[in-house]
Amino acid sequence: MSSPSPLVNPMDLTGRHLLVTGASSGIGRATAILLSQLGARVTLTGRDADRLGKTVDLMAGTDHRAVPFDLGMIDEIPAWLRGLAQTGGPFAGLAHCAGVQVSKPIRNADAAFMNDMFRINVSAGLSLARAFRQRGSAVEGAGIVFVASASAFVGQAGNVVYCAAKGAVVAAARALAVELARDKIRVNCVCPALVDTEMADRFRSTMSEAQFAEYLMHYPMGIGRPEDVANAIAFLIADTARWMTGSSLLLDGGLLAG
Fold this sequence. Notes:
Elements: E1 17-21, H1 26-37, E2 41-44, H2 49-57, E3 65-66, H3 77-88, E4 91-96, H4 111-132, E5 138-147, H5 160-179, E6 185-192, H6 198-204, H7 209-216, H8 226-237, E7 248-251
Parallel strand pairs: 1-2, 1-4, 2-3, 4-5, 5-6, 6-7
Helix pairs in contact: 1-8, 3-4, 4-5
């Protein structure tokens, strides 16, 4: 009688070095925590050192690093990431969770506002991808996951610039998937709708209680939690998505189904 096959967890990340941006709160924090629970060694980044430290306190395992950095310094990202890889080992994955969402009607959207929205939501991600393909920065089979948004697929009055930025992220991920395939790097997106985070609280503050209640009626399954998005990010980084690249995984509680 043959012995039973050993149990295999395709989402096991033991021994892998991963980078999570925007890890001081919300989706980034939930992602860093989950990846650590799956065995990964995580380098976390964000602009607030104290809040990054609080994330580390919630993580499983040891040897995680909190490295404050302003991703708005686009041209400095490649050298910064290369330094992280040199001191901590090459990365097996990147979860780019940092982002900004500000609602503003197009009549009030000047050049400075547009530049700010695109700098973190689009340009920083492109620079991270550029950095990831540097020699010694990533291992073969590494996965990049961008946090885009369901807003890339649905029009929203007063949110035109944000919709455009997240649409650009989805398009960039597809193009990067093709270009970086030769470097054995996968690139995918998660596209969440409204998630219960500080960013969502700011969005809610722009509405009356009645307006927000009406907005929630478009979500058959209610709004999401940061952990819902973290689960999808982990899936795309792990071997479960070994044969996926250029995909955009929609997480919207049924918003676009109606």
